[in-house]
Amino acid sequence: MTDGLPTDGVTLGAMLLVAALVGLVVGVLVARRARGVRDAGVHDTTGGALGGGQHHAVPDGVGAVLDALRAGAVVATRSGRVVRANAPATRLGLVRGDRIVNPAVERLVLDAAQDGRQVDEEVEVQRSAVGGATLVLHVRVAVLDAEHVLLIVEDRTDALRLEAVRRDFVVNTSHELKTPVGALSLLAETVEDAADDPETVRRFAGRMRTEAQRLAALVQEIIELSRLQSTDPSREPEHVLVADVVGEAVERSRTAAGARRIAIEAGPVPDAVVLGSHDLLVTAVRNLLDNAVAYSEPGTRVAVGTSVDVAAGTVEVAVVDQGIGIPAEAVPRLFERFYRVDPARSRDTGGTGLGLSIVKHVVADHGGEVSVWSQPGQGSTFTVRLPLADASATEGADR
């Protein structure tokens, strides 16, 4: 709760907006009373309180102001009885009938009415009556007149989640970069101390090369992920042949797979066309293949299967491995940035923990989804599902 300058993300502009709204609503109320219309009449607390009928307690001018707001807005009596609420307030589940549903929000209304001053606070509320996820709401309450208070509620859930994601990304990136940089520093000192021992210099120079490659791969994937998360409205989607995507991804993964004695087998690919970026889709499929190779044992195989569901208008690309599998508790976190099921194995294989996150973003940008099935000791199957381009585009695409 704040009384002075805006804090904790509350901008001065937002505070001025609330002040302007209070002034505007008070002005409408004063004008109404100047015409001799009293607010002590009958409250419409059925449809009217939520925008479905005549609003006897609050004039139409106030309703028009509230309905123009994106934020949830409620006019209530000082006792907490709702006399007008806009559609966003209803969607947020703030009101039911003529009551404010959430006790915490109702308490803020009563506090503001009792103290006669503006209340500004963040509260957490259940997304639904049966529980589950919560919403973080920024609540402002201001006194309108002797009988009414104005409640403005903004949903801050997504904004706070984004802040947390960015903060975690910076922390994780710093940690991940520090590991190879520190290793390079130590190896350089070792090489310097062993300048008279050519064998030692060669051995540690090789390790330096490995760490440098890991650092370069990490930086490249961070750049790629950042590029995917920044929308480019000028980029026009192109018609992409799924067969070309699968073929190129398989070829680019064969070298790493061969070094581990893992065979990559690709089945027939239907003549399917999607809208998007050829290069990004190749990156997504290749990341799935590289992940499958990294977590498979030598002498096993990785298979790529493609199928079309004409009725659903989708094409699926599945990457199946015979690897170590994934524990059930780890599956929900697989697509998080820097998450690794087995950190030690990732270090051995040079994994950055960003590959699956990039897959998720690429597929989402193409209007699709990615899913995973896995059992420890039985391997894993990652499936990318993408919407097909229209039939005429598919028939006209050049092979």
UniProtKB/TrEMBL annotation:
SMART domains: HATPase_c (SM00387), HisKA (SM00388). It is found in: Cell membrane. CDD domains: HATPase, HisKA. GO terms for cellular component: plasma membrane. It catalyses: ATP + protein L-histidine = ADP + protein N-phospho-L-histidine. GO terms for molecular function: ATP binding; phosphoprotein phosphatase activity; phosphorelay sensor kinase activity. GO terms for biological process: cellular response to phosphate starvation. The chain crosses the membrane at residues 12-31. Gene3D superfamilies: 1.10.287.130, Histidine kinase-like ATPase, C-terminal domain. Pfam families: HATPase_c, HisKA. It comes from the Bacteria. InterPro entries: BphY/WalK/GraS-like, HATPase_C_sf, HATPase_dom, His_kinase_dom, HisK_dim/P_dom, HisK_dim/P_sf, Sig_transdc_His_kin-like_C. Residues 172-390 form the Histidine kinase domain. This is Sensor-like histidine kinase SenX3. Its EC number is 2.7.13.3. The lineage of its organism: Bacteria, Bacillati, Actinomycetota, Actinomycetes, Micrococcales. Keywords: ATP-binding, Cell membrane, Kinase, Membrane, Nucleotide-binding, Phosphoprotein, Transferase, Transmembrane, Transmembrane helix, Two-component regulatory system. The keyword Hydrolase does not apply. The keyword Membrane applies.
